[in-house]
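Ticket #4471: structure export looks truncated?
Reporter: QA, pipeline team
Priority: medium

Steps to reproduce: submit the single chain below to the structure queue and open the exported record.
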Amino acid sequence: MSLSPAALAPRARGDAEPQRAGPAIVVVLVEPAGPLNVGSVARLCANFAIAQLRLVAPRCNPLGEEARRMAVHGQAQLEQAATYPDLAAAIADCRRVVATSGRLEREELPLDGPATALRWLLEPEESAAGPAGVGGCAAPVALVFGREDRGLSIDELLQAGRILRLESSADYASLNLSHAVAICLHELRCLAASAAPQAGASPGAGGTSLRGALEATLADAEELLLAVGFLHPHTAHARMAKLRALLQRAQIREGEVALIRGMVRQLRWATTRRTP
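Actual output as written to the record:
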């Protein structure tokens, strides 16, 4: 399929993308090893007006000649791509996260097709906070892609709210990284274009980050459960992974995260209170 010259032409830096319904979207590549893939994804970000490209511990030079050659008119996206030491840092400010996986997992994590997962990604968050204040900015949402050779680990998949799986032949299920990104971004574009904006609707959680709040809550909970003896150091990781999987299946929302964190803090206070 060929794109028209108008579709491929770069916009001037001062030109704004026409406003569409939905939150700002960031694409996250975890430990990309191929500079050609990184450059191709930067080009795709330009094609589909993606807010940011984020790279987690890249295993190649994302600004090398090969990456630049493939980026074409996505040079700005390539040069402005932020790097992070791990996935948790890359998505800490994101309200919702969809991770991609090309294989079935032994832990039987719930898998969604592109339409289901990406429609969820674009949904406005239900929040009692109301619209963002003057000058406020709604938190972005993230679409995460794994390593070319082995994808995302179980721990990384458990950091997402939903897991997306592209249907492909069982004889050769693995897709090229940039091809998978292209399919997902095209589907996102179609869903965003078909979404009718609602008058007076808030873009989400008023700049708050569901992922950041959830990670902090789980860290508090793990510390408390270790302190009271429910968890043990040698099994804590595996048991917390089961809790993460449970919350992922439940599709926990921002207000529910706040409720759980309040319970954890109250329990911590109760366990440390001195009896007179």
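Status: closed, not a bug. The export was complete when the record was re-opened. Leaving a note from the reviewer for reference: The chain has two domains: 22-194, 210-272.
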